[in-house]
Amino acid sequence: MTWTWTAPLLLPLLGELPPARRPLPKPGAVEATLFSGEFQERFWARVQTGEPGECWEWQGALSDGYGHVRVAGRSTPVHRVAYLLAGHTIPEDLVLDHRCRNRRCVNPDHLEAVTSRENILRGEGAAARAARVSHCPRGHWYGGENLRVRPDGRRVCRACERGRRR
Ligand SMILES: [Zn+2]
Ligand SMILES: [Zn+2]
């Protein structure tokens, strides 16, 4: 797949590289949508905005816990749209993390661009819980010489590994 589009807004907005079959939006189409008053009016009409410190929840339909709107023909997560509308950019190798852990929230103050690994570690998933564990099931420290990290990212306790081999 060749990826030639380099407009600063487009890549981060889409959040992922599109399948090769799908045509890319025309240059400028994303920006034209985002910066139109009509789009912004319709967008914020579907958000329950509150105080700066509160969660501003998306009132529209959710899929996988996240709201989406069409931007230049593409379904785009609403928290990414809100973040860009607030004047932030999202570097293309980063993902947007909900610091409040509320997926419906589009309050730009609650969003932060982080690496995808960081995002996983902060989350509530199994990988995140596993990563926060500091010792193996038998109590050996996951660190220093005793730690081996497998190519898939899982940690192995060398003491236990040696014990099993004996
Ligand atoms: Zn929030
Ligand atoms: Zn161990």
TrEMBL record:
Pfam families per record? HNH_3 (PF13392)
Specify the signal sequence span: none
Does the entry feature the keyword Membrane, yes or no? Answer: no
Q: Which UniProt keywords apply?
A: Plasmid
- HNH nuclease domain spans which residues? 78-119
Q: Which domain of life is it from?
A: Bacteria
The protein's name: HNH nuclease domain-containing protein
